[in-house]
Design a protein that fits this description.
By secondary structure, the chain is α+β, with helices and mostly antiparallel strands. It has 8 helices and 12 strands. Helix 3 links the parallel strand 1 and strand 2. It binds biotinyl-5-AMP. The site of biotinyl-5-AMP has 27 residues, from helix 3, strand 3, strand 6 and strand 7.
Length: about 280
């Protein structure tokens, strides 16, 4: 990415990881931290580290990304020193069929962490966006590697717009994106938010393994703003319309079509439509 002088001079300072390490009480997450001032993509690096045997909970974090990735080959805009770009290597003790629950667990943890930094509660947009007032504040990219009956590793990549001023957002995202700064009208400490996120994700990850998905699913539903709303779902080149009913125990979105038939949607892009 080419950064204009304007963007450079407006950027904040690099993350202070020592202050994060000092207060960290998480049992698994963040016990190994790899920091980069700039990287291609923290997810790509995390995959490589995981393939080389990185431990459960290893954290890769960067102050900017030159090739930040979204789903389906999309791009994640990642300017320096104002946002958070990070990936965790997880090695959950779950069968591969339950691995998709990791994305939903991460969304609950992320929404929990963001709550106290925002003037209004965040919402989850299935499956992987955190929105505020209908605009995208954060995204999650989960990538996994599974054996026949075990999950080898899951990479949970998270991008959060923190102190990202509206006028520095490129045209491609400006109308649909927001940041904590835009919502609160003042900067927040990225270190405080990161520390909080590591704690909340560590807690939710433990809950998923120990108590199963049911409780997390109900918390997910509480953040899901579109239950009962008419939505449009794009699945590759197919488009489906219907009413969002929530999620099932595997984390699939339940969609009731216009004939009353229930569909389980396991991947796709959802947008609300007016009734
Ligand atoms: C996502 O994809 O929302 C997942 C984003 C995950 C990014 C993190 S950053 C750390 C880690 N390392 C990586 O390389 N990735 C992860 P998706 O649902 O496909 O959304 C992508 C779309 O969101 C783009 O096509 C844009 O429309 C929009 N977008 C891109 N950058 C954005 C930003 N900074 N803020 C809000 N929206 C953005």
């Amino acid at each position: 990415m080419i950064i204009s002088e304007n963007q450079r001079s407006s950027a904040g300072s690099p993350l202070d990881l020592n202050s994060i390490r000092q207060g960290l009480t998480a049992q698994r997450l963040g016990t190994e931290i790899h920091y980069f001032a700039e990287i291609g993509s923290t997810n790509t690096y995390a995959r490589r580290l995981a393939a080389q045997g990185a431990r459960d909970g290893a954290l890769i974090i960067a102050d900017s990304q030159t090739d930040g990735r979204g789903r389906l080959g999309r791009h994640w805009v990642s300017p320096p020193n104002m946002n958070l770009y990070l990936s965790f290597v997880l090695r959950p003790k779950l069968p591969p069929s339950r691995a998709p629950q990791i994305t939903l667990m991460a969304a609950v943890a992320l929404a929990d962490a963001l709550r106290s930094f925002l003037p209004v509660p965040p919402a989850i947009k299935w499956p992987n966006d955190i929105t505020v007032n209908g605009k995208k504040l954060a995204g999650i990219l989960t990538e996994m590697s599974c054996g026949d009956d075990t999950v080898d590793f899951v990479i949970v990549g998270i991008g959060i717009n923190v102190n990202y001023p509206f006028d520095l957002m490129p045209e491609e995202i400006r109308q649909r994106a927001t940041s904590i700064l835009v919502e609160r009208q003042r900067n927040v400490s990225r270190e405080d938010l990161l520390w909080r996120l590591i704690k909340d994700l560590d807690r939710c990850y433990g809950e998923l393994e120990e108590n199963g998905f049911a409780l997390l699913a109900s918390r997910w539903e509480a953040y899901f703003g579109w239950r009962g709303r008419r939505v449009r779902i794009e699945i590759l080149d197919q488009v489906l319309f219907g009413t969002a009913k929530g999620i099932d125990h595997d984390g699939a979105l339940l969609l009731e079509d216009d004939h009353g038939k229930l569909h389980r949607v396991i991947a796709g892009d959802v947008t609300p439509v007016n009734p």
